Amino acid sequence: MARLWDMLDAARTAVEFTEGVGFQDFLQDRKTRNAVERNLEILGEAARCVSQQTRESLSDIPWRSMIGLRNILTHEYGEIRYEVLWAVVHDKLTPLIERLEEIGVNRPPTPEQQ
C-alpha cells in the first residue's frame, strides 16, 4: 500500500503544481517544470515497485506507461517533450488519482504498513 500512496501523493502534487498555470507559463517556469518532472519520476518509480500481483489486480491502471515515462525522465531527460508532460498531468493524472482513491489509497501508510 505504501507504493500506491507514493503514486497518489506524487500525482496529486504534480496536478497541484500546475493548477492555474497555462502551458506557456509552464514552459517558462523552470522550477515548476522540474517539480512536475520530479513528481512524475516518483510516480513511475513507485509504480515500478508495486508487486506484479497488485498490478494484475489493478489492470486498468496504466503501469507500463507510468514506468516508461519515468525511464524517459530519468535516462533520456534531453528528449523530454513538455507538451507530453503537460498532457499527462492534465489528462491522465486525475483519473489515476480517482482510481487510487476509489480503492482506498487516501492517506499515508502507517510505519507498520511500510
From TrEMBL:
The keyword Nucleotide-binding applies. Belongs to the HepT RNase toxin family. One of its GO terms (molecular function) is hydrolase activity. Keywords: Hydrolase, Nuclease, Nucleotide-binding, Phosphoprotein, Toxin-antitoxin system. This is DUF86 domain-containing protein. GO terms for cellular component: toxin-antitoxin complex. It comes from Anaerobaca lacustris.
